[in-house]
Structures are given as structure tokens and as C-alpha cells.
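Homework help thread (please don't just give me the answer)

Our assignment gives two proteins as sequence + C-alpha cell strings and asks us to describe the second one. The first is just a warm-up. Here they are:
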Amino acid sequence: MYEIKSIKDGTYGAYEYSTPVPADYSFKQMLVMARDIANANGYEASIYDDENEWALTGSVDDMIAKVDGLRGNVTKDRLDEGIVWHLREDQQLSEGLANELGANRCFKIINNKYLTKNGL
């Protein structure tokens, strides 16, 4: 199930909210819905897959294992190359990941099966 997350101005200030996307919507329809919400509210709107949201947990080896064999949400019959994480300004890595990754605020974990399939 996908949802659009955005911000609205309320009586007591701005607040975050989400709107469910109908299950039969195509990706193009989701983009139009996100753009319409952004235009109506004056804030950025983003598409999220609320069932498969990826969290930064465990060690680097655990994260590699999570991505291994990952298939896309748009093209289910194809392997995804990997996942790129961009940490928000207020987001911190766990102590274990911070020790392994250092001060990196953006990093990519590559799907090993994708690399093997493509002969890299």
C-alpha cells in the first residue's frame, strides 16, 4: 500500500499527514496525486511504500543481507540494483552503523544478486 506524505498548515501551525493511494493507481497516477497535494498545500509531497519501508537497523552485513535479492516495486520481475539512503539532517545512525560507515550521510547498499546476474 502506498501513501503520500506531506505537510499542511493548521490552526496551531504546520503538521505532517499522509493520504492513502488507491490500490489500483499506476505510478504515473501516484506522481500526479503527489503533485496535486504539493500544489494544494504549498509543501513538498512524497510517495512512500508503507509496507516495505526500509529502516537502518543492524550492521552493514545485516543491511547487505536485506537488500540481497531485492525486487522492484514497479518492475516485480527484475532485480533492483540496490537502495540509496540519504539521512535527514536530524537523523542519526545507530552506534554500530556509525562505527562502520563513519560520517557518511548518504550511502548505497548494492544487491549482490543484481551484480552476479549482470556479470559485474
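The one we have to describe:
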Amino acid sequence: MIQTKDVSQETLNLVVKLHKDHYPDNHATKFWPKKLLHRYMEIFSESDNTIICITSDNKILGYAIYGCNIELTINTFARENLLQIILFYLSSPHFAIKLMSARIRSTVRRLRTTTHNSKDWILLSICTDRSDPNIAKTLIEKFEKDGSKKGFNICKLFVKKSNDVAIKFYLKHGYNILSIIDSETCIMAKSI
């Protein structure tokens, strides 16, 4: 039987394993040491944000991270784990160059426009084991339902422009592309 539930300390290790096994290869967090990735997931479960997972027979089939203070939570994580993050990037030149490039684009973007604020209901991440296409649909519906319950009218998410599968999925589920904030990131939104 498939269930949606909040991630607990017991299921956090399974969520980390799913992330390492199925997250896109172009995303640095897939390659973080397990301890650092575990802390990253844990800080979301301890914050006002939400991590939910879909399980069947005690197996994690997918998870989603979302909330309205995503940027604050990420900044808190980065401050608390700065040394480990720096060590990862020093040992991974490919990701170090990508990070520097992303930071420069992000700074330019922030100077040009404000794309979201802490009052937005934002989906940070969805990851599934790809065993059932309905898992991602269930996760996005839960994200939207929780946003509506909390009084939000619009759901937003960020997706890499090169991720055609995700963009098609979100368009199919009623999301529109609001803007492209740098050469590789689309902001998508849907009224709920």
C-alpha cells in the first residue's frame, strides 16, 4: 500500500539513499558525503519546511522538500556546515567551477530582479525511484494541497532549463514558465 507521510529520523537514511541513487548527476548534492547530505535533509525536517515521502512496504519510493522559508533554511545549513561544503568543493574541481559560475549568475540575477520572497510557497526538490510515474504526481499534489491549506494562492518551483522531462511534467500539471532567471534555471508557477 502506498502512503504519503512526513519524514522521520528513521526514514531519513532511506531518503538520503534514494537521493544518492536517483538524483540527477549534474546536481552536486548527489555526490556529497552521506553525512553532509543527511544533515542537509535533517535541517529541513527540523525547520518550518516539509519533507514528505511516499512509501510502500517500508520502501521509500519518492520524496519532496517544500515550504515558505526555503532560502533561510538553506542559508542556515550552509552556515552550520561551511567547512564540510568547502572541503567537498575543493575535492571536486568540476563542481567547484560550476558553483563559482552559479554564484556569479545568482548575484547578477538578484541585482536585476527579485524572483521570490520568503512568503512564496516553493517546491525545492522532488526525487523518485522512477518505478511508478504516479509517485511524482502524488508528491506535487500534496505540495499544492499543503500550500492551499496554509493560505497560499500560488505554488512556485525552480527547474533546470535542460531538464525537459521535469518541465514537461510540470506543464502537464498546470504550471507555467514565469521566467528564466539565468541561462539554465526556469521559474515555474501555478495558481492553486
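TA reply:
I won't write it for you, but here's a hint about the kind of observation we're looking for: DSSP finds seven helices and seven strands in the chain.
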